[in-house]
Design goal:
Blueprint (H helix, E strand, L loop, with lengths): L1 H21 L20 H101 L4 E3 L2 E16 L26 E5 L4 E10 L2 E10 L18 E10 L4 E9 L34 E10 L4 E8 L15 E2 L16 E6 L7 E6 L11 E10 L3 E16 L8 E19 L3 E11 L12 E3 L6 E3 L1 E14 L2 E12 L2 E6 L2 E5 L14 H6 L10 E18 L2 E16 L16 E14 L2
Antiparallel strand pairs: 1-2, 2-3, 2-4, 2-25, 4-5, 5-6, 6-7, 7-8, 8-9, 9-13, 10-14, 11-12, 13-14, 14-15, 15-16, 16-19, 17-18, 19-20, 20-23, 21-22, 23-24, 24-25
Helix pairs in contact: 1-2
């Protein structure tokens, strides 16, 4: 561009000097600049001059136009130069911004690289720490194994060592297991004495065995305590043989959802916490110190064969065949020898034997034969197993719900005599029940409720009464109505503290028949004699001029209890637990007018028991 400007300048100078040269003027010769007279010049010269002037003017015009064109081009070039400079400035700004971004990216990359390096270092440290912890855990597992390996079987011992004490307002001489159905009535001797005792008999020893065979899981469980009853043991509600086997069962869980279990276990009438399995932790037993648990609690612990099926993730079904036994009131079979029955137990340790009868003939003609039967049966001669079915639903948020049904078959036999052939009699019993554990505050407060009702189901109620009575006319068995219910709360508001409260009730229906004429017989007779229930001894009743008989058939039993536990230690060595419990029990009998004046109101004696328990346990890990 500079060369173009120099060229234009030279051209302009030449153009400006051209007129002087054309007119014969020399800027360096002053003498030549003297003008000649126009008059003295020839005509041809004047013409030539005129042409020269015209040509000069034309050249000047063209030169001017050229200058203007060059100026326009110069201006355009200047504008282009200015635009180019502006573009260069923008490019420089963009380059500077790019450099700044690159520098920022480099800084950010450096920071990210540093952070990644720090994360890698932390991860390495965490992995190292986790490895150290894992190694420490493995070493701890080797030093303190949860199970003992034996030929592919994982063995886990357990149980607890306990010392408990009890104080009762009325004596029952029943250790930690209160005889709910036999607490003292009104003024009986037991009401005159309080009772204190200490016991370690509820201490337990357990052993669990687990093994895997492909997709099948095998489990065995054994548990015992020291509540054996010696010669008076029976299988009525739980076995009490020496040593006392509480639980002893084995189980096979198949990959298709089926489970088969056999042995002595908490049977299907016992409420579950989850599902329908028999193992501890899945069954619900009131966490009480009282060894007879709670009125209204449905349970049994004897031999059972059980089949379970998982029907999805929330629904389970089960069916069982249970070792049976019959609880006969023994109130009526006075005319004929009746075999095959057992009488009610007291608490969990009842006792009964096969009936024995003796017959005597009078000297009259014809002789009158009198038969006297003594009811001391221990075991019943059973026809078929008890059958129980259960269906459960479990949801982590909604809780556990279950329904269950029970069928029982009873049989006795009229023993043949010379005059009358023997005959077997049959009766059927059964009932239905429910159970629910509802989370009120998840993992802190649960509401618990259960119930069972039916006829001939007394064996599965906590207080244990009579399944049926035997009629003296035909010796048919008449089942007794039974109803039970229990409700309460389990709370764990703090990790080391548990506080529970329960209320339970059991009812037994009046079961009567006409023995002869207008004479009633059976259970809960309105004509029963209860006058002797109000006296400490029979002699005092006789001295008062009343019968010393105290029939006292139970109508209703209920109790309320409050239990609390505190875990002083909970760790790898197990749990050291302290607890206390207070109970109130009330017993009501069916009223009877026996021994009273005609028209007198029947007597329905009552009894109550107030008990306090304490315990300390070391629960093995």
């Amino acid at each position: 561009m500079r060369k173009n400007i120099l060229f234009l300048t030279l051209m302009a100078s030449s153009v400006l000097a051209a007129p002087a040269m054309i007119l014969g003027q020399s800027p360096t010769n002053p003498a030549a600049s003297q003008p000649e007279s126009e008059q003295s010049k020839p005509q041809a010269v004047r013409a030539k001059k005129a042409d020269a002037e015209t040509s000069t003017a034309e050249q000047l015009r063209e030169l001017k136009e050229l200058i203007l064109q060059q100026q326009a081009a110069t201006q355009q070039l200047q504008q282009q130069l200015q635009q180019t400079q502006q573009q260069l400035q923008r490019i420089q700004s963009t380059a500077q911004a790019a450099d700044a971004k690159a520098a920022a990216v480099e800084t950010n990359d450096a920071q990210q690289a540093q952070k990644i390096q720090e994360d890698l270092t932390n991860a390495k440290n965490a992995v190292t720490a986790a490895t150290v912890q894992l190694q420490a855990k493995k070493l701890d597992t080797l030093d303190h194994p949860e199970t003992i390996a034996y030929k592919g079987i994982r063995l886990k011992p357990g149980g607890f060592i306990e010392l408990s004490s009890y104080f009762r307002s009325h004596a029952t001489l029943s250790d930690l297991a209160t005889c709910f159905n036999a607490i003292s009535l009104a003024g009986q001797a037991g009401t005159k004495l309080t009772e204190f005792g200490e016991s370690a008999r509820d201490s337990r020893i357990s052993l669990r065995a687990d093994a895997d065979s492909g997709s099948t899981k095998l489990t065995g469980y054994f548990e015992m305590d020291f509540f054996a009853a010696g010669a008076t043991s029976n299988p009525n509600q739980s076995t009490s043989y020496t040593p006392r086997m509480r639980l002893a069962w084995s189980r096979a869980q198949f990959g298709n959802g089926w489970t088969i279990t056999g042995g002595q276990m908490w049977n299907l009438t016992t409420m579950n916490r989850k599902g329908t399995e028999a193992e501890p932790g899945t069954t619900w037993i009131p966490n009480v110190i009282e060894a007879q648990y709670a009125i209204g609690n449905n349970w049994g612990r004897f031999a059972e064969f059980r089949i379970n099926k998982h029907l999805g993730t929330k629904v389970n079904a089960a069916f069982s065949l249970d070792n049976p036994t019959y609880l006969n009131s023994g109130a009526t079979n006075t005319n004929t020898a009746v075999a095959g029955l057992a009488s009610v137990g007291v608490g969990g340790d009842g006792n009964s034997l096969v009936s024995t009868c003796t017959s005597t003939a009078s000297s009259a003609t014809p002789p009158v034969i009198t038969t006297t039967c003594t009811n001391t049966p221990t075991y019943s001669t059973n026809l078929a197993p008890d059958m129980i079915a259960k269906l459960t639903y479990d949801d982590p948020k909604l809780g556990h719900y279950e329904v269950k049904g029970l069928i029982r078959i009873f049989r006795d036999r009229d023993v043949a005599t010379v005059a009358v052939p023997g005959v077997d009699n049959h009766a059927y019993g059964g009932g239905a029940g429910f159970g629910a554990i509802v989370p009120v505050l998840p993992k802190k407060v649960d509401f618990v409720a259960q119930g069972l009702f039916g006829k001939g189901i007394s064996r599965y109620l906590d207080s244990g009464q009579y399944d049926f009575v035997v009629q003296s006319t035909g010796e048919n068995m008449q089942t007794v109505l039974g109803l039970s219910s229990l409700a309460g709360f389990e709370t764990h508001l703090k990790p080391k503290v548990e506080i529970d409260a329960f209320f339970g009730n059991e009812y037994f229906g009046r079961t009567t028949y006409i023995a002869s004429g207008t004479t009633l017989a059976g259970y809960g007779l309105p004509t029963a004699t209860n006058t002797g229930c109000y006296y400490e001894t029979a002699a005092l009743a006789t001295a008062a001029g009343v019968s010393s008989t105290c029939t006292g058939n139970n109508r209703d039993l209920w109790n309320a209890k409050l239990i609390g536990y505190y875990d002083a230690y909970k760790g790898t060595l197990g749990i050291v637990r302290f607890g206390a419990e207070v109970d109130y029990v009330e017993r009501t009998t069916w009223s009877g007018t026996g021994g009273l004046a005609v028209g007198a109101r029947g007597l329905a004696p009552r009894g109550n028991e107030k008990t306090a328990f304490t315990t300390m346990r070391w629960i093995l890990p």
